[in-house]
Amino acid sequence: MADNPSPGDRRAFLRQCVGLASSAGVVGLLLTAHVRQAQALPPWAIRPPGALDEDGFAAACVRCGLCVRACPFDILHLATPGSGITVGTPYFVARQGACEMCQDIPCVPACPTGALDHALADIAKARMGVAVFTGRDTCYAVAQQTGCRACYLACPIKGEAITMERHQKNGRGYFEPTVHTDACTGCGKCEQACVTEKASIKVLPLALARRDPSAAP
Amino acid sequence: MTEQSVPIAVRRGLLLRNRWLLARRAVQFATLTLFLLGPWYGIWWVKGNLASSTILDVLSLTDPMILVQSLGAGHVPLTTAVTGALIVLMFYLAIGGRVYCSWVCPINVVTDAAHWLRARLGLGPGWQPRRALRNWILAMTLVVSALTGTIAWELINPITYLHRGLVFGLGMAWLLVLAVFLFDLLVSRRGWCSHLCPVGAFYGALGRASLVRVNARERHACTDCGDCYRACPEPHVLVPALKPRTTTASVVIASGDCTNCGRCIDVCGEDVLHFGTRYSKRVSEMSPPRV
What chain A residue is nearest to B129 in terms of C-alpha separation? Predict the structure, then answer.
């Protein structure tokens, strides 16, 4: 019987296949819908240095956490379900712990797949995100004209990524932190160092800060 | 159990009757412990998780199914990941594809617990989709990975949710694990591992060609008690080897669905079943049949 199926057997077999394919198709559609809404990188989450752009990262990162283990400062985490970040992917929160910009960038060679690009050899060339001055109304240097320059002093690309630019207001001079996006690595040191209650300078993911927002994940 | 098999089973002793089950639990426990030694005690023999890991900072391993999805999504992985996946492939090709399922996967403990409880509650088989459905779901995960440019199954895979959760922090992952437990407990007997999981389907495909296989080389001693069928998570795999149409048919359990869990060997009172290779022969071909 198995060697020589009758037309009835063949029809039953075909019907089975159609049933299975349809069931799998439903699973596939649900999975596709889930994939679409489960890919997320909120503005407060920053990828490790050398991370491919979010589209490339989604295809490359296997969520093994070897970068997390390689980080000597334990700033990296793997996203848990419910955190609002693509589940299992690595990130850090600058305000809680900024990237220390290790010269040897140990997290990058730890990545087995190349989701963190091994071509990155100079940490100053990393583009984890970009700092954005968000608090002209809260920044002590601008709002209170105190001469605070915590962000400037914390910046590892000193004098290049953040400069204190002199401005005038009501006849008084003050200095405003100014980000130079061509030099900023997005390490988040400025955001971590900012002394106002809510940081007045923030690192945003590149896709959000620099590209078409509608294309952001 | 038949009246005949009870005294034999008793005579074999509790440890002997459960030796493969105990070995399997020990290996599952040891595997998980190795991953937890680092985060819990700072002993970093093993880093990473089941998706990819390094052993003693020398050996890199990567889950081949995840890597296949990554390839499908359009990423060309580094050689570290590719060689790591090839090593894992060779390993399971040697000891049995779905050894991953029964000896390594942390979800196995969850679904085995659900099955144990389901049997105690006398709930019957419940919803039983065809076992081939998992193969179609496997194909579908690859299609969705390619269409969306993502490692699609990793966005819901309960195995890596649980394992990553235990090693790196659980978050809400326990909800998904609970869902799998309740599905197997209340909806479908052995529903997840034996019908739906595409990871099992992937390793099952390896199992078709793998070296270590269970065989029924003393099938002439079978008393038709049915103990092995009741213990087996994939009972259909037993039939061709144990109850073949011709007496010369192979004694080897060839189906990739077999997880090499060894439970059938444990429960068989007549020692019909044994671990062997895919080339194992009938007893009558090796030596004169027992009297």
Answer: A20
How many domains, in total, are found in chain A? 1
Answer yes or no: is A15 within a domain.
no
Question: CA dist B20 to B9, B111, B208, B253, Å?
Answer: 15, 18, 21, 17
Whether A150 is in a domain gets the answer: yes
In this prediction the ipTM stands at 0.87
Q: Which of the 8 DSSP states describes residue B188? A: B
Are B152 and A21 a contacting pair at CB < 8 A? no
pLDDT value at position A1? Answer: 41
The pLDDT value recorded for residue A35 is 85
What pLDDT digit, counting tens, does each position of B187-208 carry? 999 999 999 999 999 999 999 9
A52 to chain B nearest CA, in Å? 11
The per-residue pLDDT for A178 is 94
Within the 40-59 window of chain A, which residues sit less than 8 Å (CB to CB) from chain B?
Answer: 55-56, 58-59
Residues of chain A found within 8 Å of residue B38, distances taken between Cβ atoms: 69
Predicted model pTM: 0.89
Identify which has the larger pLDDT, B212 or B16. B212
CA–CA separation, B174 and B195 (whole Å) = 22
d(CA B154, CA B177): 14
Rounded distance between C-alpha atoms, residue B139 and residue B198, angstroms: 8
